[in-house]
Write a structure and sequence with these properties.
By secondary structure, this protein is mainly beta. The chain has 1 helix and 15 strands; from the N terminus they run αβββββββββββββββ. The strands form 4 sheets. The protein has a 4-stranded antiparallel β-sheet, with no helix packed on it. Strands 5-6-7-8 form a 4-stranded antiparallel β-sheet, with no helix packed on it. A 4-stranded antiparallel β-sheet has the order 9-10-11-12, with no helix packed on it. It is globular.
Amino acid sequence: SGRVIEPIVSRHRKKVNTLSIDPGRDWLLASAGSDCLVQVYDVRKLHVALASFELPKASQAAEFAPDGSSRLAVTCFDDRLRIYSLAHFDGAAAASTIKAAADTATSPTPLAIKHHTQTGRWVVPFRVTWTATADAVLVGGMKRTADMYDAATGNPLASLSSPELMTAIPSRNAAHPNGRAIAAATNSGRVHLYQA
C-alpha cells in the first residue's frame, strides 16, 4: 500500500531483528528486537501494539507459523524458545490493546522449550523457524546440529548432524515447503541438506 512502517520500528528502543506477517491473518505483524521486546501489531492501526511481550533477554527472532494458526515462535538469549498462541486476536482486535509481560498470568502462556541459544561472538545468533507443516520448529544447535522440537509439546524430535561434514554450527535453517527436506546453513558458507 506504500505506507511507511517507521512508527513500528521506532517503538523498539534497540535494533529490530525480525519482522513476520501471519499468513492466516495478514493484518498481524510481529517484531522482535534487541530491547527484550516482541511486539504484535495490527497493520491497519499501527499507533499501538496489540501485545507486547517482555523477555528476560534480547530476542533474535519471532516467526509466525506457516499454517495460519497464529502461533508465534520466538528465540530469546535466555536459552528458551517460546511458542505463543495468538489465535484469540480477531479482526476487531485493533480496537482494544492487550499489554502483557511474557510468562506471567496475564499473557498467553507460551510453550517454553529449553535450548542453548547463546552463540557467543563468532556465531550468527540462532533464529527458530517452522517446518513446512508447522508441527515442529527447527533451530541450530551448539553441538553442530539442527535441532527439531514438537511445536505442541516441546519434546525433541530430531537432532540432524553430519559430524564428518558439518564442521561449523548451523545457525540458519529452513524446511522445504513440501516437507521432505531440511537445509542447515553454517558460517563456513556450506549448506547441508537432510531428507525428512
